[in-house]
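Postdoc handover notes: sequence design on the structure in folder B. Input tokens:
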């Protein structure tokens, strides 16, 4: 695996599932595989889904589309996708495209798992 290649690890948490992402989220087969796996497992997923983006170096338009699609699909299943660990590059990309205001964003993974969503 190259240092910039997208990689995701899934971890169960207290009433949530955490996807820890690193590398670059864009238009690659690894990213599309993640998206397909997310969609396939959504029915069995807990009510809160945390995307820990602290390891993302960058995301491109396809990656923004993947995050938006995951959010929309989860919402239609009465589940919440929340973010944590967004660096400035990721936050700016999600804000400029209008995706960030749709999502709850937390500083830490623990906070993303336990915080009340209003």
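Designed sequence:
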């Amino acid at each position: 695996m190259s240092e910039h290649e997208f990689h995701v690890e899934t971890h169960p948490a207290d009433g949530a599932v955490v996807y820890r992402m690193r590398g670059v989220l864009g238009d690659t087969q690894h990213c599309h595989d993640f998206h397909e796996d997310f969609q396939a497992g959504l029915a069995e997923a807990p009510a809160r889904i945390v995307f820990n983006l602290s390891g993302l170096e960058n995301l491109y338009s396809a990656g923004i589309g993947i995050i938006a699609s995951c959010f929309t699909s989860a919402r239609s299943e009465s589940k919440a996708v929340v973010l944590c660990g967004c660096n400035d590059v990721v936050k700016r990309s999600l804000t400029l495209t209008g995706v960030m205001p749709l999502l709850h964003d937390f500083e830490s993974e623990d906070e993303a798992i336990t915080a009340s969503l209003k």
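Context for whoever picks this up: The chain has a mean pLDDT of 94. Don't rerun without checking with the PI first.
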